[in-house]
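Input (Aminotransferase class V-fold PLP-dependent enzyme):
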Amino acid sequence: MTIATIEPFDPSTSTVNPLAKVVGADLVVPLLGGGELRYVNLDYAASAPALVEVLDFVNTIIPFYASVHRGAGYTSQVSTSLYENARTTVRRFVGGRSDDSVIFTRNTTDSLNLLAGCVPATGEVLYLDLEHHANLLPWQRLPHRSLTAAVTLAETLERVRAELSTGGISLLAVTGASNVTGELLPISELADLAHAHGARIVVDAAQLAPHRRIDISRDGVDYLAFSGHKLYAPFGAGVLVGRPDWLDAGTPYLPGGGAVRRVKVDSVSWATGPARHEGGSPNLVGAAALAHAAEVLASLDVDAWHTHEQALRSALVSGLATLPGVTVHQLFQDSADPIGVVNFSVSGYDAGLVAAYLAAEHGVGLRDGRFCAHPLLQRLGLPSGSLRASVGLGSRLADVDRLLGGLRSLLSDGLTADYVVDEERWVPAAETRTFPVWAPHTPGTAGAAPCSID
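Output:
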């Protein structure tokens, strides 16, 4: 296991405030045993809250909602224009080529599974052991090779080069930023290696897109996938952007209305372009919200964006370093400039128990488990999981302070309430918090953590 280098924290950043307004920023939640606190969301990496601008935009377009591509009415024409213009916005947001297809899906997992049905049968897919399951499981159904990453990025690049040089690989699948540790992979260098050996590259940008500017034309990326729910637009849409030839020849992902040119009782002529894979009525609101979020992020001052995130991450990592028994984890000894995702563990405490305690007694939400990256957690020596805190545009320094304060209380005073395992998740033994009437809480139905269990 590699231990993270502790970053220095400059006290002058102590006035770090949100960089954008998010829905729920001042939400107040009940605490175990009584009292309330402003909710601290340090789980942006799982699902980011909606930007206020995005929600306002959704409310603006809802009165015009109608069928897309199929109606002659005015609202149908407006909806169709909105949907197709969203493709142009997303293509521009990621620096896409003029002929790149932009296909709207449900999420990153959906996008990568779609692409898996379009990879030519003439070669194998190569992926690393550090991938999220979304960028690992789809390829296991195809001829594939997995590769163990090294402890440095430099050596990992060399391993990828060596594997590609053996031939027979048609696609290299990599993440842009680790969903476990936030470390970036050298995408342009990996793209160069893939192309030099006759392969293409797909990048899982679920974590990268909400934190960094992307330019697939500049970096030579052939396919890119990301999700609206991580891009401050949680309305059920994702996207796949990339070269059209494989997509136009691949198996239609969602056979149905709109995906065809002509249908007979026992035969079909499929459409090309995005329509080939977008059968049925599309998620107009989700696509439009995703595109609008992309516009908001594209308008941010890059330096201010980077400074905001790095100040928060630095404060968190530096603060964790002062706590006895707390270890921050990273993948590579030579990684630099990670996004606002920090992975850590607390000696003597199950990660799920720590997360439950922080939520119930300090109003802090963060992630525990294995983050849908089981092979990576095994390699890090964390087979039972760890903790992940992640920040975003709506985060403030007070959020980091609340987390650190909760951990200090745990380490100095221990648990002040009893916790039990319910459906493989830690929960308070005696739940005293009230839940909304539209989301009633029933003991014994906590639900298993799907990426935490065996």
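The first strand starts at residue 2 and ends at 3.
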